[in-house]
Amino acid sequence: MAEKRNIFLIGPMGAGKSTIGRHLAQMLHLDFYDSDQEIESRSGADISWVFDIEGEEGFRVREARVINDLTEKQGIVLATGGGSVISKEVRNRLSARGIVVYLETTIDKQVARTQRDKRRPLLQVDEPRGVLEKLAGERNPLYEEVADLVVRTDDQSAKVVANEIIERL
Ligand code: S3P
Question: Where does Mg(2+) bind (predicted)?
Fold first, then answer.
């Protein structure tokens, strides 16, 4: 039987990867995974705890391991953490194992979508916009490098974006 394809969503915090990914998986009858959730269930701790105890370095080791394991599967939609692409190993793995979709949006949208959310340790600062801008400068070229498809998620609903992805696959 032909291998079932995988779809991997990449992009910054607040791009809508998890929400859009859930819709996409439902529409395509694929299984949905979220790398942050998987890290939490494997470690028994939330992401902030992992950052506190093991630092960002420890978190990245866990993240790369989880992505490596999940991408062994077939027929999944995976929402990756926004920083996962800083690892070349992760970028290569995603490219090799599925279709990589970069969800792109504006810094304004990212700020609006993440401001009520206390789960992201990198944004627990006085000026989250500055952090998001700095990360965008470092990471946008990496998202672009690894993307098979780039989709904007500015004003459309998650369902509409999921439909657009399906049309353009
Ligand atoms: C991070 C993004 C988060 C999470 C962690 C670090 C990042 O995931 O993995 O807080 O470095 O951009 P989301 O992109 O799902 O918010």
Answer: 18
Q: How far apart are CA 135 and CA 13, in angstroms?
A: 10
Enumerate residues lining ligand 1, CB below 6 A.
Answer: 13, 17, 36, 47, 81-83, 120-122
Beta-carbon count within 10 A of 168 CB: 11
39 CA closest ligand 1 atom index: 9
Block means of pLDDT (10 residues each) for the chain, length 169 residues? Answer: 81 98 98 98 96 97 98 98 98 98 98 89 94 98 98 96 96
Domains of the chain as residue ranges with CATH: 7-168 (3.40.50.300)
**Mutational test site, ligand 1, from 13, 51, 119, max ligand atoms within 8 Å of CB:** 13
Q: How many angstroms separate the first and last alpha carbons of the chain?
A: 21
This prediction has a pTM of 0.97
State residue 169's pLDDT score: 92
Cross-strand partners of 78: 8, 33
pLDDT of 1 reads 45
